[in-house]
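Friendly challenge for the regulars: who can give me the structure tokens for this chain first? No prize, just bragging rights.
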Amino acid sequence: MARVHAGLSCALALGLSQVSLTASMDKAHSRTLFVDARGGSDSSGRRGKSDFPFQTIAKAETLARPGDTILLRPGTHALSSALIITKPKLRITGRGARIIGPTSDAYFLCLNADHISLVGVEVDGCRGNNKQGGVSGAIYVGAKDNCIANCSIHGMNRYAIQVGDGAQDTLIEHNHIYDCFGGVVGDTGKKAARAFRRLRVLDNKITDAFVEPSTPLSGGVKLHSNSGHYSARCIIRDNYLYKAGEVGIEAQGGVDELQISRNSVYGSGIGISLDTIWSSSVMKNRVSGSTYIGLEAAGDARGDAYVGNLVDSRDESGKTASSYSFSGSNSPPPSHLKISHNTFLYGSFQFNSASTFIDIISNKIVSASYAPVSLSSSHVNLRNNTVRSEVARGGGGCFVFLDATSRDIDDVVIANNSFGSSTGSFGSGAGLQFYIPGQYNVTNVSVIDNVCDGTTFPNTWTQQVGGGTGFVRFKQNDPVKYGSGSF
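First reply, four minutes later:
Bragging rights claimed.
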């Protein structure tokens, strides 16, 4: 056994030495190829040296070897057609260099080999007044370990960057993307084995999309699977998104196991949306000024966690811009979600679908709508939340509204919550309302140890409304405890 171990150690050492030697040789043989659009030439015999630069990026890429750097000198570098890079380990860089392409609708650069870096350049689509838009990217990534960093990308009549099949461990960081149809889009083919994985979108500024917040398919970061559910394990973190399109950050169709954290999203139609996404987290983001929904769980979103987010439905002027601070909707409905320790300001919190197994714990929810919390879900745990109504004095409303219009609701726990309002006294409504306009029932409801700040209602604390033939059946119904009037 000692010989086996020694032989294995030698083999490992030899392998590591060979890897180290190969890396050293690559570095030793790497070159810098210079490109000068105004003073260079692509004539035969040119080798891209500092005093004899090439004129075009395409020529430099043709003659480059793995490990080389293509250094673009300041000025405008025009591409007559898409530059498809098939050589690995290239670095394209150049402070003050501006790359323009054939049109704002076409691909500019296709990174189709491994370990390619595009660093510190400007990429300008020159779209002018063109506002057609499209879901593809000016810069396409289709291989492993590629990096796009410290670039300014703008004027694209499409997304700035597209990540497609074959792309693994792509890093997109410290870029400023603006005046485009969208920022970063990831899209898969039909085979999950080829789908992009471990994409990292970190510390980018994606601002001022040229479209309205309601424009379909536009957005800041948009990940979509055509191959069903797979473990994508992408990270979207520390980005600043300002008026970036229809959705600030969206994942859809099965791009699972995502981490979306510490992003700031302002002025999109929907701030952050998980649509048919499993086992993902949305944590410590700041979402404000959304024109429709702040945070969304849509379709078969399953096993996701929304934790520690701040969602403010007001715009920069202080006006309430969106209807919903949180929405769970669509069919098939979301399930097994954890929504905890968030702050939701001035938009309603709703689940209007047949969602199940929803934990709503330790959130602060403030709204001026009729019902700050509206639920059509079963197996709900609404516990330890602070819920405040901003309805005007004498107005109608409630704190929690359970809506059995379209289905039976079963197993709802409303416990240890603190309710309050600026109203003091409502002209109509109740603390908890059960809306039953037809034959459906609300059963196994537990109302336990809730506290109200002294707000009063003309009716009892719990009230059935709607005039239907269905009924409410309580498992436990403790009377509310009235506090001092402070909140």
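The chain is about 5% helix and 40% strand. Residues 1-25 have pLDDT under 50 and may be disordered. Your move, everyone else.
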